Amino acid sequence: MAQPAPVSVITPVFNGARHIQACLDNVLQQQVPGLEHIVVDGGSTDGTLDRVRAFARQHAHVQLRVNPGQRQSEAMNEGTQVARGDLIAILNADDFFEPGALRSALAHAATLRAPGLIVGDCALRDETLRIVKMFRPIRRLSVRALLCGYMHPINPSSYLYHRALHEAVGGYRTDLDYTMDVDFIYRALNAAAEVRRVDEHWGNMVEHAASKTVQDRAAGRMESRLADLQREYLRTYPPWQRALIVAVRAGARIRRRWRRLAQRP
Fold first, then answer.
1. Host domain of residue 68
2. Residue 107 belongs to some domain of the structure
3. pLDDT in tens, 149-179
4. Which residue, 133, 135, 132, is CA-closest to 197?
5. Domain CATH number, residue 40
6. Does any domain span residue 95?
7. CB 116 within 8 A of CB 88
8. What is the rounded average pLDDT of the residues 83-107?
9. Coil, strand, or helix at residue 129?
10. Residue 64, class by beta-carbon neighbours within 10 Å (0-12 exposed, 13-18 middle, 19+ buried)?
11. Could you tell me if residue 244 is inside a domain?
12. Number of domains making up the chain
């Protein structure tokens, strides 16, 4: 019988030959004994599968699952279902962990009440890997705070959670192709026995011309998708609380606008 892993890293990928080798190397370089890396491929035709198979022949911690036509949420759910780790990390093929991030996260998570979520900081990087912005979610994370406009955990490379939390919330919604991670965070915050924020840089989100986020933003759909998701969760609050949340969010937008204006030369 296979031994439990301290953490299972799930990488959903489709035609990611440009990034998958760096992703495989990045997870290996975390130097976490017993770690497993599950790559779930949606039927790549660009050489991604050859790269993963070659790497897996040399490194027993890598497992490849191929399901042509499978969507990203489905891939993350499948990877978690077969994972041996008590803790789950999601790493997109074009993102990466900071050196030593997983070991530090695991050390902090050792005392995390289950099912729990533990969150670090995430750097947004451009195609040259230059840091554009550092995202530091607020210390007291809650759905209400996020709906009020406070920073949510922006990318799964910067957080871990117990596999039991994934099971408690029913996994990632397969009807969402772009905001499934934000929706997962909302549901996880409501279901977690503990949510812990750690002031350390763990994850890196890379924006490049072919990334889903960049393409969705360029098409003018990203903000509307997030707004639709927020409205869905706002409807779970009584009218007076909805009004208060909307007012706080509007005030936060005004403050951000004033700060930008004040910074102009």
1. 5-234
2. yes
3. 877 788 999 999 999 999 999 999 999 988 9
4. 135
5. 3.90.550.10
6. yes
7. no
8. 96
9. coil
10. middle
11. no
12. 1
Q: Residue 196's closest CA among 106, 112, 102, 89?
A: 112
Q: Looking at the DSSP assignment, which residues form a beta bridge with residue 205?
A: 124
Q: 182, 31, 156, 167: which is closest to 93 by C-alpha? A: 156
Give the pLDDT of residue 217.
Answer: 79
Does residue 91 sit in helix, strand or coil? coil
Q: What is the DSSP letter of 173?
A: -
For 96, the token pair is 């990466």
Give the residue carrying structure tokens 């040259």.
128
Residue 37: how many other CB atoms lie within 10 Å: 28
Task: Please name the residue that has the structure tokens 């406070």.
Answer: 150
Confidence of residue 106 (pLDDT cuts 50, 70, 90): very high
What per-residue confidence (pLDDT) applies to 210? 80
Chain-centre distance for alpha carbon 48:
21
Please list, in sequence order, all residues whose beta carbon lies within 8 angstroms of the beta carbon of residue 132, skipping any fewer than 6 positions away: 124, 125, 126, 207
